[in-house]
Amino acid sequence: MLNVAIVAGGDSGEYGISMKSGKQVELNIDREIFRPFLIEIKGKSWNYRIGFNKFPVDKNDFSLTIGKRKIRFDIVFIAIHGTPGENGKLQGYFDMLGIPYTSCDATTSALTFNKSFCKNIVSAYGIKTAKSLHFFHQDEDNAKRILSELSLPVFVKPNNGGSSVGMSRVNLKKELPPALAKAFHEDTEILVEEFIGGRELTCGVLRSGNELIAFPVTEIISKKEYFDYEAKYKKGMASEVVPADLPKKLSGHCQDISRLLYEKLNCKGVVRFDYIFTGEDFYFLEVNTVPGMSSASIVPKMAQAYGWSFKYLITTLIYQELKIKN
């Protein structure tokens, strides 16, 4: 059997969601093939738990000692949304140790985690993106520049982060200062984007053997003004239509864009691309290189619509990295 470390938690506002993702992977993994170990990472505390007992990870070689048994891992399933699992930090650590993992490499993770830098690269491939401004420091001139260069409404969000933590929609001038403060509380960089009206669509992509698979395009319908943290994770606040009610040609075009970006950004594992569809064009929003795997998450629903069970999805992700035929 293969020893699989499932790392979850992390050091961002997505900690709770990440733990749910990790737990679902642990519950759904094929135990006839894999021996899973759910490892909680929080700051310098990295632990595997059995009941009330904690077993710390030896960071020198990423191993566990339980009793007299030393456990080494064949692969790491990364389920950390946000830092350090989605921004390349853990990937660099595992690269130095020579341990394979189920996500994009350190370079791609760091690049795509930075929303502004990622948008610039995506734009270079001819994909439309919303007009935006990128700020590194909080000062009074930011609001003035936003109002002079962008049209309200705008979205103000941390530049590095996910799950809409610290994000606000600004419809009125007076709402801008508190929105900026909220975003800067979560990050030292922020991104301000003009609102693009349309339908919110998302598409998951992964590689299985030599085939690059795009899952069915999914529409996200939020009961809130936009798909914020509450809408994402509070039951009944949003619904996902899988597959989206789109003409086959448009759905295929969205999948083609997603496959293109997966290859151009040098992605690995399962990656989810988010868009706004105006009725004419697809506007790229962001890429999720460690998408949610909780019971409420979109990627497992996409996989199911494609004909894959959650167990088969997990096995495919692990086998693809280990170059084992599924």
Q: First CA to last CA: what distance?
A: 15 Å
CATH homology superfamily name of the largest domain: ATP-grasp fold, B domain
Q: From the helix content, strand content and strand pairing, which structural class follows?
A: alpha+beta
The level-1 CATH class of the largest domain: Alpha Beta
Based on Cα principal axes, name the global outline: globular
Instruction: Please provide the ordered H/E string of secondary-structure elements.
Output: EHEEEEEEHHHEEHEEHEEEEHEHEEHH
Mean pLDDT: 92
Q: Helix segment count?
A: 10
Radius of gyration: 20 Å
Q: Write down the CATH topology of the largest domain.
A: D-amino Acid Aminotransferase, Chain A, domain 1
Number of DSSP strand runs: 18
- Stretches where pLDDT is under 50 for at least 5 consecutive residues are 227-233
Helix content: 25-40%
Beta-strand proportion = 25-35%
What CATH architecture label of the largest domain applies? 2-Layer Sandwich
Main pleated-sheet profile: 7 strands, mixed
Number of domains: 3
Question: How would you describe what is shown here?
Answer:
This protein is α+β, with helices and mostly antiparallel strands. It has three domains: 2-103, Rossmann fold; 110-128 and 197-322, D-amino Acid Aminotransferase, Chain A, domain 1 (2-Layer Sandwich), CATH 3.30.470.20; 131-194, 2-Layer Sandwich (Dna Ligase, domain 1), CATH 3.30.1490.20. 33% of the residues lie in helices and 29% in strands. It has helices at 15-28, 89-97, 106-113, 115-124, 140-149, 176-186, 229-233, 248-264, 298-306, 310-322, and strands at 2-9, 34-42, 45-50, 53-56, 64-66, 69-71, 75-78, 128-129, 132-135, 154-158, 168-170, 190-194, 199-208, 211-214, 218-222, 238-241, 271-277, 282-288. Strands 8, 13, 14, 15, 16, 17 and 18 form a seven-stranded mixed beta sheet that branches. Strands 4-3-2-1-7 form a five-stranded mixed beta sheet, with helices on one face. It has a four-stranded antiparallel beta sheet with strand order 9-12-10-11. The two termini are 15 Å apart.
